[in-house]
Amino acid sequence: MQSTVNNNENWTPRIxxxxxxxxxxxxxxxxxxxxxRYAPSTRVVRVMCSGRIDPEFIMEAFAKGADGVLxxxxxxxxxxxxxxxxxxxxxxxxxxxxxxxxGIDKHRLRLEWISASEGKRLQEVVNExxxxxxxxxxxxxxxxxxxxxx
Amino acid sequence: xxxxxxxxxxxxxxxxxxxxxxxxxxxxxxLFTVVEHADLVFWPIALDTKYKDVExxxxxxxxxxxxxxxxxxxxxxxxxxxxxxxxxxxxxYGSCAHMGxxxxxxxxxxxxDIFKRVYEESESTENAQKVRPATETKVKExxxxxxxxxxxxxxxxxxxxxxxxxxxCPPQTERLVExxxxxxxxxxxxxxxxxxxxxxxxxxxDCKRKKSDKKGIVKFKRAWEVTDDGETCLNEQGILCMxxxxxxxxxxRCVEGNAPCRGCYGPMEGIPDPGAKMMSAIASMLEGKxxxxxxxxxxxxxxxxxxxxxxxxxxxxxxxxQ
Lengths: 150, 322
Known about the structure:
- The complex is a heterodimer.
- Chain A is α/β, with parallel strands linked by helices.
- Chain A has a single domain (15-146), classed as 3-Layer(aba) Sandwich (Rossmann fold), CATH 3.40.50.
- Helices cover 41% and strands 15% of the residues of chain A.
- Chain A contains five helices and four strands.
- A four-stranded parallel β-sheet of chain A has the order 2-1-3-4, sandwiched between helices.
- Chain A is globular.
- In chain A, 48% of the residues are buried.
- Chain B is globular.
- Chain B is 30% helix and 14% strand.
- In chain B, the strands form three sheets. Chain B has a five-stranded parallel β-sheet with strand order 2-1-3-5-9. Chain B has a two-stranded antiparallel sheet with strand order 4-8. In chain B, strands 6-7 form a two-stranded antiparallel sheet.
- Chain B is of the alpha/beta class.
- The N and C termini of chain B lie far apart (55 Å).
- In chain B, strand 6 and strand 7 (142-145) form a beta hairpin.
- Chain B has three domains: 7-102 and 151-184, NADH:ubiquinone oxidoreductase-like, 20kDa subunit (Rossmann fold), CATH 3.40.50.700; 108-150, no CATH class; 203-308, no CATH class.
- Chain A binds chain B through residues 54-56, 59-60, 62-63, 76, 83, 86-87, 89-91, 93-95, 97-98, 101-104, 140-141, 144-145, 148-150, and chain B through 74, 77, 108, 148, 150-152, 154, 158, 272-273, 275-277, 279-280, 282-284, 286, 288-289, 291, 294-295, 297-298, 301, 303-306, 308, 316-322.
């Protein structure tokens, strides 16, 4: 990921977004065809199910310079594979606690259930998260991970 | 055997407790077999070889160095670099050299906080002048020096090139003997960078306790809250066991002793982050679907970062507290 970070007003956070194929990814498609404008801050990774998102993906994203990680899945009860989103929710809750212990701002990590018809919701969520990340500024995680401080 | 030259073996400790060196002594009478095949040229716990003696050895003259302990000070780093230069094979021996180990938990803190606590705030300390260790102190006889204490705890391979990793806290002595005999007998060595003295399966594969597919854990408990039935999977009984994310090799020693696995053997081949895999596994084992049920279950995992990275914080993806 190329670093474009600077501290001026034009800085846009980089959000790595893991979207499930059946709901949130389709919602982002819908947002596109509906011409809904939203902040150009997300780099979307399509996964087949939010249950596929290994905690490792999230850590790797932060370690490689993401300012935030957004996870999108189907609403509870609507998972295409019946229970994947519950697994995602449990993992996410555990990772939130871990991230807090590791000193990562909680606003950098977000989980949203966005169904295929909720393009508008996707627009809101991305804009909102982008605004929040602009408030807290660029992530220093990559720098910390790569620097062995003697 | 008599005409075959003995191999030169060195054992050194960085930021370690000494347990790894003791695990070498635990070969018991096999020690005679070891010294029959090897000359111990440097081993601070047992021999009085000085650093300058090591400095005088020709480069690459030590056949195998077992380096245990993490890198916490400039002395550790200096010795790691020196031994790398003098050794043909450098083995990161034990959890601390492999992934940071228990000393690596200091990466939840930093140098300033540690010094403040130890030299100023601890209950038994009286230090009105706030004196702290200095790397150089001038006295009338000359200058006294101390190694520099680093802000980060590092794994051995974050400082020097490492040939092999032999994990464990401490490594199981049988595994060490197997590795040693392989070198002595001239068996083909595994590719550089391999984790050796381990199995290609997780702890659970060797664990004799009864396991079911549906774990259905509602809440984790502290060990004292549970009367262990002695035969059911500890996770299923609500005792957090790192077995599912930990590589085999130790012979499931802790669980055989009715204590949960703590993860000292590190992750399976190809897994960069043991804690991430454990979090993933736990989430699959939980029962709840509603947020409040899940919150309750997660709340019972008292210290996720400290528990899942007990032996591996400096070697994990995020490496230290931000």
